[in-house]
Amino acid sequence: MEPVGIDAVEVWTGKLKLDLPDTFAPQKGEDPDKYRKGIGLVGSSFPDLHEDIVTMGANAAKRLMDRTGLTPEDIGRIDVATESAFDNSKPVSTYVAGCLEQYFDGEFRHANKGERKFACVAGTQSIDDAYNWIRAGRNRGRAALVIATDTALYARGDPGEATQGAGAVAMLIDEDPDLVEISTEQGYGSMDETDFLKPNQQFPSVDGKRSVQVYLSRMREAVEDFESVAWDLHPDDFASVPFHTPFPGMVRKAALLGYRHMSRDTEIEDALAGEIGRQPREADYASREAYEEAISEYTDALKQTEQYQSWYDRTIEPTLTISRQVGNWYTGSVHIARIAALQYAAEEDRNLAGEKLLVGSYGSGAQAEIHAETVQPNWETEIAQLNVDAQLRARYDLSYSEYEQVHDSHNHEKGTVDIDDFTEPSDEFVFTGWGRMNER
Ligand code: CAA
What we know:
Blueprint: E1 4-13, E2 16-19, H1 20-28, H2 32-39, E3 43-46, H3 53-68, E4 75-81, H4 92-104, E5 112-116, H5 122-135, E6 143-152, E7 165-175, E8 180-190, E9 196-197, E10 205-206, H6 208-229, H7 248-263, H8 267-276, H9 288-303, H10 306-315, H11 323-326, H12 333-347, E11 356-363, E12 367-375, H13 379-384, H14 388-394, E13 396-397, H15 400-409
Parallel strand pairs: 2-13, 4-5, 4-6
Antiparallel strand pairs: 1-7, 1-8, 2-3, 6-7, 8-12, 9-10, 11-12
Helix pairs in contact: 1-2, 3-4, 6-7
The structure holds acetoacetyl-coenzyme A (CAA).
């Protein structure tokens, strides 16, 4: 069976930046270390006035198609994953396709276009759809374009304001991929939840603290489900573990619980027994509360061990390097975590070909998905084409009052806000206004 997976990727960051420790925190009367150390974000990306989810997605896809030499006729499917859609009928992919058709002077006339929604997990679900379409042999030799694009804004004053972001990731899903092969096995943890939702409203209603617990619970269930169809995971199975990153502090919590789970009943637990004891077993405790207290103490001790720290530094920390600077990209978030890990490995001259990634996606509402990926021999050449660092450096650094104006300008309820673009568009699709949505 031919491998199927991600053949090429491109990234488009919103062109504005808000510095969280130095610009945002002082205005909120907060300690900058809450951002640097606690939440783990130093910046958020925002769309300039001439950007929206369509232009960011189309600009990422244009760059991908340009450098891989693809024309619209080579693409049999375009799926856009987003939780920031503005049209309840026409999928965002039709707007993106319209932009690309103008530029490439060709048509996606025989491509299947759609839009996927399940909060942040929809990007991975769109990859699944493309994978299944190719595996079913319905692709007629063509590739699928998956675009994860979001503007993650929260109401001003909401605690979520600390974790905003905007950007798009375009991914080409194909046979014999250059970047990663995707495993057939998957695990799911899924349950109806109401901690984060947007029923007919632009900004989410969020119970932030509960959303963190729901993330951890669904992720644990997904890992267990994956193990039931694949294999019992061991921390050394993976070169990297890219997870959905609403903010790096969230992944720090998930990583610790994941490591504890994976090291149970292994030589790692044996080696640590003298230092921190063995993992508590529920059967040995008189009550659930006593067990939870014991497991919490064990987890705190595990976090301090050299074994855990070196695993974390190798497999988790490198996945956070882009997220730390851009904030939450919702559907694109786990996909920039993968890119960050691969970029870091390339910079370190680490050859990942043949090694495995454990990818954890998550969407509020809520669903987690776990699968494995195998890094392909050409991964380094593909990753070397990206210009993420240059894009991040080129962002306009907003003052706090400029941030407020930009936030208002993207608030659908505020109407037109009379300010100019902060950056000059160059060789890119631009948003020309809500009344003229096809004229990007
Ligand atoms: N130095 C070091 N650390 C500090 C600090 C300081 N001076 N001040 C605070 N901190 C730490 C806190 O101890 C805390 O760490 P722990 O969670 O490990 O205890 C961390 O910084 C954050 O501080 P708070 O909890 O006080 O921050 P907050 O009340 O402002 O809320 C939040 C944080 C809940 C994440 C909020 O930003 C939020 O609601 N975000 C949106 C929801 C979200 O992203 N949820 C994540 C799971 S849901 C999901 O993943 C889907 C999605 O994409 C939205």
